[in-house]
Amino acid sequence: MALVKVYVNYKKSILNPEAEAVHKALQRLGYENVEDVKLGKYFELTVADGKSKADLDAEINEICDKLLANYNMENYHYEIEETEAAQ
Amino acid sequence: MKFAVLAFPGSNCEMDLYNAIKDIIKEDVELVSYKNDSLAGFDAVLIPGGFSYGDYLRSGAIARFSPIIPALQKFAKSGKPVLGICNGFQILTEAGLLPGSLQKNVSAKFICKDETLVVNNDHSIFSSEYQKGQLITLPIAHGDGNYYADQETLKDLVANDQIVFKYTNNPNGSVDNIAGIVNKQGNVLGMMPHPERAVEDILGSSDGKGVFQSIVKHIKSRGVIYE
Q: What is its main location (chain A) (predicted)?
């Protein structure tokens, strides 16, 4: 099996009011050295073996483009980790 | 003529739309489940507000893959009127039937109040009962109503006169004060404000009636469109 970790976040041009609210809260708490906060989404997809690396890459990109990310306002990247079936 | 009102799990304005059409506009109307795969026999489709699939992932992102969506895309492609309100607008952008997307309000707050809109295009299928520049009051109720389109898309929207309604006092951060747009063909409108909640004076405003009356006028003047 493989564990696919997908990270989706807003493009730079997109305002993210939730991240700004978190940033302001951190400043209020005294963490003034925190200069920027990004707040996006994180997915873990557990996928069965049987696909080549290229096919799996194609499939994950398709999943992200179709559903997990909105290309209009979001970017994504992912990592694939081989895992033991028992995990 | 007959309106379809789509209903998804989590829609909550479908009965407001249904009643507005039945009681005020006095045309035939039927609720259509998201599980159906046909829109045969309908002249116009209305997609209601609410929180389809709990707004999980992104507003409209999951509803967009419902069984009814291919039929909706076919319906829209044939040139028949499709109106998405609030969550309906979000579903239309996610389904690729309208450009751009709806982001979190700039304030990060859910906003529920009356807003004044200016009619920016008075010759669309959905706005011919209004005058260009006319001010109308409609309620808004949304957390993700901040319309975003990149500069190129925005230029197209302006050039093709696709911006139908604008806010006079932008409540949510939408680019160019956009409250409602049509697609390039002009038969699909998405808007965040709720015209169905403003169809009789007892509701505070009847300014929303014109949207539905415009659709009826269009269909009655154009006649039957075959898919």
A: cytoplasm
